Amino acid sequence: MNIPSSETLTPAPRTSDPEQLATEILERLKYRIGKDPKVAKPHDWLTAAILVARDRVTDNWMDSTKRTYAEGRKRVYYLSLEFLIGRLMRDTMTNIGIMDSMRIALASLGVDIDVIAELEPDAALGNGGLGRLAACFMESMATVDVPAYGYGIRYVHGLFRQQMSDGWQVELPENWLAHGNPWEFERRESSYEIGFGGSVDTVDVGDEAIRYVWKPAERVIATAYDTPVAGWRGQRVNTLRLWTAAPIDPILLDAFNAGDHIGALRESNKAESLARVLYPADATPAGQELRLRQEFFFSSASLQDILRRHLQQFPDFTSLPDAVAIQLNDTHPAVAVAELIRLLMDVHGLDIEQAWSIARATFSYTNHTLLPEALESWPVPLFERLLPRHMQIVYAINAMILMEARRQKTHTDQQIRSISLIDEGGERRVRMGNLAFVGSHSINGVSALHTELMKETVFADLHRLYPDRINNKTNGITPRRWLMQCNPGLLSLIREAIGDKFMDDTEALKDLETFATDSSFQEKFAAVKRQNKVRLAKLVRERMGVRIDPSSMFDIQTKRIHEYKRQLLNIIEAISLYDQMRSRPELDWVPRVKVFSGKAAPSYHNAKLIIKLANDVARVINNDPAVRGLLKVVFVPNYNVSLAEVIIPAADLSEQISTAGMEASGTGNMKFGLNGALTIGTLDGANVEMRDHVGADNIMIFGMTAEEVAKVRADTYNPRAIIEGSKELQQALSAIASGVFSPGDTGRFADLVDGLYSHDWFMVAADFDAYAKAQREVDALWTDQPAWYNKTILNTARMGWFSSDRTIRQYAREIWRA
């Protein structure tokens, strides 16, 4: 009997003929879903179509893996607590080139692909920019042919689903996995034990050497689920490997039989909580412990998987840095530094000098924040109780680093204390940012400004010790999702104007510059924008019952709700504009719709209060006939990737107004600019480089620079004097404080207003007048539509540099050596 090989089982290549696709859809419907077409529901057709697409991706996936082995390619492992991948159907079908054929195939079966595509749930695997960046990077690594795995957690609920109750944010579970995930493959063979707690013993191994043995008190099993990630044109498919957790013993049968039904499942519930929710609230000790458990859980599983794969190809770990590059996306996986050293020493027998040398040559670290409170740290008692062996390793690393600093004689005692992995000020804490820094050969910022500020602020003393490690890799976005898929009208217009070269080389969008003053092209560009605005207006009407006019300027701020991102500044300016419109009705006001969207961390009181204020202001303004519909304010709940794909193409004005020096980069600014929105913003994060690329005349910059913010903070800043000297600002704050927008609870926003008067750390008052002036300049520009579209077309034409393909090529060449 001849047994067929895997090659003979795989059609090569599978056809994209619509008739063949339709046949395969019916086969999947019958044999995988168990449905006859006559009774199949839309979600059945969705799953069948995904399975057909997945088969084609899988062919390329296996070919990519074989090619990586055959060519001896270096692999990149991207460790991230978030991967905000969004819906995958359109993304994958477009990248492998079957989207049009699939549309025809489904239509022949009486199915509208646009209808079923809306049923695909957003994968709730991220929070905001950090997670979306990781998703863009995964797609770009496949596109530019970098062999890669992304490692994270397969959250059952992920980040919460946001609803509004009387204008307040309400957090509900996001049940995106309730009906399974047809894209993924369970890998039961890729399972690893993860330990917590317990004790550390020593074993004499001869020659006066000892080996440390960690004996965890708790153990769970990490099991992998793989999702293929196809690059553009489908030439390479990489792997997103997510871990789920299960107990060693799912049920304590003796306890169950004794009637303790809850106690019998205690271990199961404890294990499964590791993969239940993204960012559990850490305001309590229990929340902090769960966060640290999650971070160690996925870091340890990922490293065990990496080392297992390495030993399948190489005899030992001396070659690990040549074969493997591990990128730490922020401080969440920083514990991986200590875990890799533990595995190399305690499991594989290397000494600490060898393990430390290998680890530093293998790891690199991306920093995403200059906020000291966002650079994670853990109480030493918690860390030591949960990870006793790792605490020993952290102390050992710390001793090496501090002695090195002492030998150089270039650091004061205070500077050495800031380098230390242990913060001795008050409660002793393990500094994860410092651990990631010293354990990596490369530390990168994510915009030019952010990188320079890293050297001057949070890592100033470590930079002095290791002056060659910090480098810049400005963030980027994948143009496939953020132009080609989310804005098909603009895609068609650009292709008609300049051809298809930009689809493979985004910087070829520069060819569009010659059309910026072409009146015919401007009209077509404006028509595409209006079509996108009509779509957003329809969504707002259906979800919120608010009518917005697509002829108005759509002024949009969508991002995580945080005080440094200054949604509050935007809301206060809306109130000021509202007051002016009522008091000066004879003026020719520009119709404007202010759109907000974003989630606040459940324990972040002020951020949630800002959401409530936005909704309260919207209720008053939208129902006041005195403004004649010239101003509308809407807060669209549950911001996610799919909602962003509707909002971003509809934006006329993009709000990027963070306090200068506090936004690491931003990627929303790039997405809006690519889709033809004018940016109003501070010189913060990647806005600086956007100004350089699109031209200072084509971006509305206002407010203090990072240097000026630092100087004002260092001097005696008196926000009260500034507020009292600004008529419009004082009037708007008075309206908020007096209860104009909260008549049932006049003191609701007292703390927000008092904070601006007393300290105003985020410089809302300091930048208000400049912001309001810039907004009136935006109004003036809007009245000259040819000038407006000249600038917005140039924004689209000059955003090609901000492709994540460029960013990944820089990582591969300068950090990973891949």
UniProtKB/TrEMBL annotation:
PROSITE patterns: PHOSPHORYLASE. Its cofactor is pyridoxal 5'-phosphate. InterPro entries: Glycg_phsphrylas (IPR011833), Glyco_trans_35 (IPR000811), Pyridoxal_P_attach_site (IPR035090). The keyword Lyase does not apply. GO terms for molecular function: 1,4-alpha-oligoglucan phosphorylase activity. Pfam families: Phosphorylase. It comes from the Bacteria. Keywords: Carbohydrate metabolism, Glycosyltransferase, Pyridoxal phosphate, Transferase. The keyword Glycosyltransferase applies. It is an enzyme of class 2 (transferase). It catalyses: [(1->4)-alpha-D-glucosyl](n) + phosphate = [(1->4)-alpha-D-glucosyl](n-1) + alpha-D-glucose 1-phosphate. Its EC number is 2.4.1.1. Belongs to the glycogen phosphorylase family. NCBIfam families: P_ylase. Allosteric enzyme that catalyzes the rate-limiting step in glycogen catabolism, the phosphorolytic cleavage of glycogen to produce glucose-1-phosphate, and plays a central role in maintaining cellular and organismal glucose homeostasis. This is Alpha-1,4 glucan phosphorylase. It comes from Rhizobium aquaticum. The lineage of its organism: Bacteria, Pseudomonadati, Pseudomonadota, Alphaproteobacteria, Hyphomicrobiales.
